[in-house]
Amino acid sequence: MKKQLLFILTLFLCSFSSYAQKESNKKDSTTLIRGLFSVNDQYKKYIPNFSPQSPNTAQSTKFGDYGVNLATGIPDIQIPLYSATAGSLTLPITLKYHASGHKIKSKATWVGWGWSLDVGDGVSRTVQGLPDDVDGNTGKNYLNTTLLSSRDPCSNTTNYDIINSARNNTQDLEPDIFSYSTGSSSGKFILGANGSQPFLFPWQAIKVNKTINSLGYISEFELIETNGTAFKYGKDKLGNLVQESQNTTHGRWSKQYVSNWNLTQILSPNNKDSINLYYQNGGNVYQEDYQWSASIIANESGNYFTNTPTATAQPSTSSSVSTENNIRYIKFPNGEIEFIQSLPTEIRTDASNSRYLKQIKIYNYADNQKVLLRTVDFFYSYFKNMNNQDARLKLDSISINHSNAVDRQVYKLNYFTNSFSWDDSFNSHLKQDFFGSFNGQNNQSLITVSSLNVATSGSPNPISITNGGANRQSSSTYSKECVLEKITFPSGGFAAFDFENNQFFNGTTGVLASGLRVKSIKTYKAVGTQPIVKRYHYASEHGLGIGKLPTNWKPDTSDMVFHQTIHYDDLGIIGLSGTADQFIISPYSQIEMGSIDGAPVYYTQVDEYFEEDTASIKNSKN
C-alpha cells in the first residue's frame, strides 16, 4: 500500500522551499519522501552558535511516532507528561531528548544528560562583548552608548575615549543576542541602543517590551503575539524576581549579569485566563574553559621591540558560575502541577551544587479541594567517565502513576554505552575536535598550525609555534557514547535509534564532522513483532552523505591570525622607540563556526524511506 507523508519544517533563520513526492519505482509498502531545500547562503552570517548559560537553560504523539528535522537529521524525541490549560491557553509539560551527541564540556540537566524538561522557555541572553546593561545607569553599556561619529578613533576625543574604553573592557559596543520561545514562535532578537526598537530575526510580528529598573538593569521582559497573548518573564505574580545569573571571569575582568529571565506568566488577550509559574532554587553550576593563543613579534625596527625567534601556544582560563531556577509550581484555574526536586542533602555526584527532579505531582481542583490525579517519578543512575567515576546524571526510567494506584506507565531508557572516554580535566580538554567533541588525539594545544609566515614582503619568514600542530579532526569512535539507543514504552513495544556521524564539504571532499544524524528509527509494537522502519539518506550539491556548514569556516582556516602594527615612543625621555608587526594566532571559537538546532551541519537533500511492518525491503537504496 502506498503511503504519502507530509512534512512541515521550520528552521531558525532559514526559509526553505520543499516538496514531497512519491517515487514511482517503489513497490509494496516502501515509500520514499524526498525533501529538497533551497538555501540562500546569505543567512549564514547571522547564525552564530551560542553556548548555553546553564545546563537547564541549554535542552503528545502516539508511542514511537518520532519526527525528524530533515535539515539536520536530529530526531524529535519527547515524552509528553501533561498539559496545563486555561481557556484558550495551553502549556505542555514535556520531557525532551537532544540526540546530537555529547560534547566534552556538556553537563547534565536536572533530568539527566541530553534530556530537558520543557515547561516553557525563558528569555536567555548570550553576551557579546559585555552585557548590554553592564554596570546599569553608571556603565558605558550598549543600551546607553553614544554611537561613533566615524570609524576613525582618532577623529575626535569622544571616539578615542569610546574605542579605548572598549579595548579595556569598560565600554560595550556590541548588542547581546536574546533567545525566546512563545506558544507559536521562537527566534532571537537584539535590543536597540538609546531606546530604539528591538530587531527580531527571523522577523516576526511579536512585540518585545523590556523593563529597566531604577538602577539601569533589565529586570523583566514581555512578549506579545499578534493574537494578544502575552508571555511575561523575570517577575512572578507575587512580585518575586525570577532570574538566573552568571558570574564570568576571563583574563583581567569579571562580570556578573542576568543570563536568563524565566517564564512566569501566560496571559490571554482579554486578561481573563492565565497560567502562572513559580520557581525554586536549583543550585548553581561551575563551568571552565580554556582559550589558546600564540603571539609573534616580527619585522621590528628601532630599539624597543625584539623579534620572536619562536612562539609558544599558551592557554588562558575562563570560568563561570551560573545560578539555576527550577520550576516549582504551575498554577491554572482548574489545577496545579508541583515539581519536587532533590534535597540539599541528596548530593548529585556529578554536580554537587545542583539538584535533580525526583517527582511531579499533578492536581485537579474539585469542590474547593485539591485532588491528586497522577504522579511522575524519575529514576537515575550515573554515566561513568574514563576513570570509572560517576560523572553525568543518567535518566534510566520514568513512571507515570495514576491516582487509582492501578494504571502505571513506565518508560525505560537504554543508551549505546554507559560510560564515556574523557573526564573534565585539562588533558581531556586538549583532545577535542573543531566542534568541541572528543577525538582522542594527544594534542599539546588547540592551535593547528605549527609555524606561521610573518614576512610582510620579500621571502618567507616562518616562525615555529611550540605546542602547535594540533589534530582536531572528528572521530566516529566516540560519537555514540552515552547517546540514547532505545525507549521501551508502557505497552511493551519500543523504538530503537541508530545514528551516524555528520559529514561536511571541506572545499575538496567530504570529511567527518562532530555530531550525529539519525540513520534509522525502528518502532516495534511489541517484542517479537516486525518493526515499522524509517531510514534516512543525506546529501547536498557536494555529494551523497555530505552536508554543508552554516558559516564560511573551514578546517584549512581553523586558526585565526590577527595582524597589527604596534608602535612605541618614549618621547625622547630615555631614547626608546620602535615599530613592529604583531601576529596573534588563536583557534576560531564555535561561535564563528555556527550551528542550526544544535547541529554543526545541515543538508539540502534528504531521502526518507518508510517501511510497513509486514514489508520486505526490495529497494536497493534501503
Notes on the protein architecture:
The protein is mostly beta strands and 622 residues long. The protein is built from 3 helices and 34 strands. The strands form 4 sheets. The protein has a 26-stranded antiparallel β-sheet that branches.
Helices and strands, with pairings:
Blueprint: E1 31-36, E2 68-69, E3 74-75, E4 77-86, E5 89-97, E6 115-118, E7 123-126, H1 157-167, E8 177-181, E9 186-190, E10 199-201, E11 207-212, E12 218-224, E13 230-233, E14 243-250, E15 253-261, E16 263-267, E17 274-302, E18 311-312, E19 314-332, E20 335-341, E21 357-366, E22 369-384, E23 390-402, E24 408-415, H2 426-429, E25 451-453, E26 462-466, E27 484-488, E28 494-505, E29 510-524, E30 532-540, E31 543-544, E32 559-569, E33 577-587, H3 590-593, E34 605-611
Parallel strand pairs: 18-26
Antiparallel strand pairs: 1-34, 2-3, 4-5, 5-6, 7-8, 7-15, 8-9, 9-10, 11-12, 12-13, 13-16, 14-15, 14-19, 16-17, 17-19, 17-33, 19-20, 20-21, 21-22, 22-23, 23-24, 24-27, 25-26, 27-28, 28-29, 29-30, 30-31, 30-34, 32-33
